[in-house]
Each structure stands twice: as structure tokens, then as C-alpha cells.
């Protein structure tokens, strides 16, 4: 019998290679390590079969399946269709790992909130703000809300009006990347056609990721060091804009746009890079800096939202939006091998504090508290 039912749809679509998919996979890894796989199940939509590894690990799938919906209407229709799906054989508790809370549920509901981007930056994401207006109101009715950072918890109180007594701050985890031999590194470099020395950027450069600011930093770094830029991540609808900004900055010959890479390839990129440059204006958590530190790359971020909370003193944390200062600090790092190694060691130590088992154990305590209160 499924005791804790999680929304598993992020493992069936394009979200599987983004932050929400990483979060759900990590949570399941944590539950497996805690030995509670048999209590946990996944609510899926009709269509792709669940990954065989999930079944092998003991995770059941809920008998009812949800209707596949366009992403623009899903936040509006989810409350009704999830309520109907849970009416047959309800679990003890339902966990919405992004949005997707059922309407007027008969069982306790826990919801994870990763960020409130459309409401923090409404001018950049007006369509998402409209789509998610209903889920935003529903946050206040959840039995418990998991925020992945204190920054997100503060946003939930300030913007969504969620009672702080209902909020639990539970950080995400990070999976360690395997070390590579020299031959493996050379093979990956040749296959991805990587430049010799490069700084790395990771993600889809929608407006909040600030590709213009990244271009300014890279152009400044190239005045002092012969580094190029590698960008890993599918750019989707933003591909043309990213290419245009790179060209206007005069960097087309010095930027390698890789598109989507596998987790294993990303681990190699982190390990080979001179530094991860993270120019985002807002992050609910900020997993790439943590992944980079775990893999042994120094990291530079701008000081906003949750980023200092995640990287602490292990990374270069620069005044938000100050490209010249980031150039100066990263240049000094690249010119000082001993300081770079110190940052690498500090980053590994910081990242080791974030494990999926810790995330899963803390989330399980939220489930148990909610069930006791009912």
C-alpha cells in the first residue's frame, strides 16, 4: 500500500533534465537509502512508462493516471484532476513536489516550493504569473509547505501570505560526481570539442539568468586570461536571443554552446572548468553552484536570493550585478593556483553538507508531523 504519494510527472517530461526532475530523483534516492521505498509511490500521467529503475527500487506507481495537459493549463486544471485521481484508493498523504495541489483534499497535503520567480520578477514572466495564480493561493491551505531555502521561505511569507508555522526549510542535496581518468577527460574534451581553458555557465538563459551580464564578465576576463566560455544546457526558445547577445558582445568565436548534456558529461565539464560563472538574478536554491563545488570547480556568484545561503564562504560572492568586480575577483583567482585550490577544497567541504539522504529524512519528518496533527 502506498503511504506517501508523490507527483512523479516531472520524471516523464522535459522537467526530468531540469531542477524539478533533479529534486524528485534526489528525494527518491534519499528515500531508498532510508529504506522507506515500499511506503512511497508516484502519481504519473498517461503515456510514458515509469523508469524501470524506480520499480526495481521498490517505488510503486499509483493505479490512476492523470491526463496529459498543456503546461499552460496544467496549473489551473491540476487541482481538479488530482482530486479525482485520489478519490479511488487514497494514500495517507500526498506530496506535490512543485505545483499540483488537489482541490479540497480529503487527505493531508505537503507541497514543495522551489521558487516564486513569476511573482518576484513579474515584468519578465507575466504569462507564468497568470498561470500560477491559483496554485499561489492554494499554498496557504496546504498542511505543510517545504521551502528549499530560507530565501524562498521568506518569499512565501511576504508574497503568498503563508503562515511561517506551516513552512519547513529543507535544502536540496547534491549527488557526487565520479572522478575521471586522464583518458576519460581527453575523450570527453574531444567529443564535446571543448577549448583548452574555459569558464563554464550552466542552465537555460531566460531573462533572469542575465546572458548580457555573463557576456560582460567573459569579455572582461579575456583581457587578462586566454579563457573561453562554455555554456551547457538547452536554450530552447531563448537560443536565438543567446546567440545574438553573444555575437553583439564580439564573443561568437570564443563561446561554445553545447546544448543539453548528460549528468555524467556535466560532471566532467565542472571538473575541467577554470570556474563556474553564475550570473542569475534570482534562485530559489541554486543547484549548479553546489554541483560545481561538489565536482571540484571554484564558483563565482552574484549576491542575491538564496545564493549566499547555499555557497556560504566557499565561493566568490560578488555584489549583485557588478560585472567589473566579478571580473576582478575571478581574474585574481585564475592568476593564483594556490588560492584556486583553496577554493576547490572549501567548495567540496561545503557541498558535502548537502546530501539527498538528509533532504529525504527531513521531508519524511514533515510527513510524520502532518499525519500526527491530523
From TrEMBL:
Q: Which organism is it from?
A: Candidatus Aeolococcus gillhamiae
Q: Pfam families, alphabetically? A: Glyco_transf_4, Glycos_transf_1
Q: Which PANTHER family match?
A: GLYCOSYLTRANSFERASE WBBK-RELATED
Q: Which GO terms describe its molecular function?
A: glycosyltransferase activity
**Protein name (Swiss-Prot/TrEMBL):** Glycosyltransferase family 1 protein
Which segments constitute the Glycosyl transferase family domain? 196-350
Q: Which UniProt keywords apply?
A: Transferase
Q: Identify the residues that the record assigns to the Glycosyltransferase subfamily 4-like N-terminal domain, covering every copy.
A: 18-178
Q: Which GO biological-process labels does this protein carry?
A: lipopolysaccharide biosynthetic process
**Origin, by domain of life?**
Bacteria
